[in-house]
Write a structure and sequence with these properties.
141 residues, elongated, four-stranded antiparallel sheet, mainly beta
Length: 141
């Protein structure tokens, strides 16, 4: 399972010249990768592994295993300089966005299966678990 980045602007039949870069995995099976602050965050939900790539070059900045219960089906969310991830087992992770892996917080929501993507809006996070919808203020708001 390879992830390909293509150059913009191609028309008609194209060949290998359209390929900007490729990443040979691990890659997502059900979630969507996050493009945030010039970085692409790629989560392999089954292997519980996240990789941070430079979006322009494909250079791998870091890769880490996610210490969560259950696979990750929800897509990662970027807001307020952070990356938010929710596992199917109900663990919410907060990572620092950037060129080094840094776990800022882990919240055990305890409700499963949780498959919804965390949403950020107006300085708040909306976290939909198996049983409830939570609204959490972020950034001192």
């Amino acid at each position: 399972r390879t992830l390909y980045a293509l150059k913009a602007g191609a028309k008609g039949q194209v060949g290998d010249e359209i390929l900007a870069w490729r990443f040979d995995g691990p890659t997502p099976d059900s979630n969507t990768s996050l493009l945030y602050q010039g970085r692409l965050y790629v989560v392999d939900g089954d292997k519980r592994r996240i990789t941070c790539l430079d979006a322009k070059t494909g250079e791998q900045k870091w890769q880490s295993r996610l210490d969560v219960r259950g696979p990750v089906r929800a897509s990662p969310t970027g807001a307020d300089g952070k990356v938010y991830i929710l596992s199917e087992g109900g663990d919410a992770l907060v990572l620092a966005a950037g060129d080094a892996f840094k776990l800022l917080s882990k919240i055990e929501m305890g409700e499963r299966p949780s498959r919804s993507t965390i949403t950020a809006a107006q300085g708040r996070l909306f976290i939909r678990t198996a049983k409830a919808l939570y609204c959490v203020g972020v950034g001192g708001r």
